């Protein structure tokens, strides 16, 4: 590559932007705060979509689509909702050259407009549960933006469900949180902490919010997915009711949950290095690249014949044959390293003569191994599986090294400089606000898995029943 990536140790923020742009994942759009997702980046997003969509459908959800424009009055119906989103709303006041009778909000999230339809569709307990999901774009007018991590417009999925009982809705909330955890750890190879959001950090208009939190390569946290128990808040303001088995009218109990293109940013920051992307095989658009090497036309014919055979042999692998003319093998190697392709297969004249190929793993710098062509169809998938596990183990080890359990406030302030800090918290908003004001760290969540016993709040010293995870965050 002509350009070089800024080293992570020199400027982590610049490193991230360099990798996203030089690996051709995305670029800046003409509209401030927006991005253009390039084909390679969109292919990565499509693999994220497929991994999630498969899980959604396996748990009984169906995809639907609702309008981009939402009447402003809908947003205003739920007090907490409008207060939480007011600073981020993009509002359309004119259309077709005329002033609109009612302003329209460009979708920041869809709880309101979906409830307006559920109120028409749900009549009886027989209509429940209603399990919907939509893949769409949303707009939130952000002041500070960063490619994939926080943009004015972004892509996501948002699930919305309606249930007959509170217990069913709460079970759904936790079920989808577990779906996100499984996806993050199994497909993205990113270890996460599942937990409940504090009151100040929860989604506007919810009863309870839950999240999965991941640790990035610079020691900052990233909220990678959220699942919300809405209770009956939106059902009451939109009149979303059903006739129960006792022939009585009840309001439905609801959930919503979402994961966005910021997951692409998480993959970059958790696994990437100074050479560029390092992609987990399950999500990589190209799992293996085959680079044929030759100097003469005779060598080219010999090598390409074997290369075609390898393509046929590895039908189950997302394989790219790089037979581009005018580029040296070294340039190609660097190019595919930048793009994070998990496995490179080199095939030169000597390899061809020996009936072998040379394998180079992206997750292990300088790792090369000559292997016979015979059995390659079994060895490559096995190696990709090994790379996937290694990336998860490496990320888990990094998180462990950057997680502390401070026993006093000074220790907490120091711990959040480099990663996660687990500490007892009394639950008060005042203690939470003090940490944020003085250290710039927030409570990422209160983990579902808690240590036994009780302790004393890391801030005020009062008795505490739960530990929270503190960290600086994107």
Would you write up a description of this structure?
The chain has 474 residues and is an alpha+beta fold. It folds into 3 domains: 12-271, Bira Bifunctional Protein, Domain 2 (BirA Bifunctional Protein, domain 2), CATH 3.30.930.10; 288-381, Rossmann fold; 405-471, Translation Initiation Factor IF3, CATH 3.30.110.30. Helices cover 35% and strands 28% of the residues. The protein is built from 14 helices and 25 strands. It has helices spanning 12-22, 39-58, 72-76, 79-85, 111-121, 166-186, 233-238, 262-271, 297-313, 329-338, 349-354, 376-401, 409-415, 429-439, and strands spanning 26-28, 35-37, 62-63, 69-71, 91-95, 98-106, 130-139, 153-163, 193-196, 208-215, 221-231, 241-243, 249-251, 253-260, 288-292, 319-321, 343-347, 356-361, 368-372, 403-404, 420-425, 442-447, 455-456, 463-464, 466-471. The strands form 6 sheets. Strands 3-7-8-14-11-10-9-22-25-21-20 form an 11-stranded mixed beta sheet, with helices on both faces. β5 (91-95) and β6 (98-106) form a beta hairpin. α2 crosses α6. It is globular, with a radius of gyration of 25 Å. The two termini are 29 Å apart. The model has no long low-confidence stretch (mean pLDDT 96).
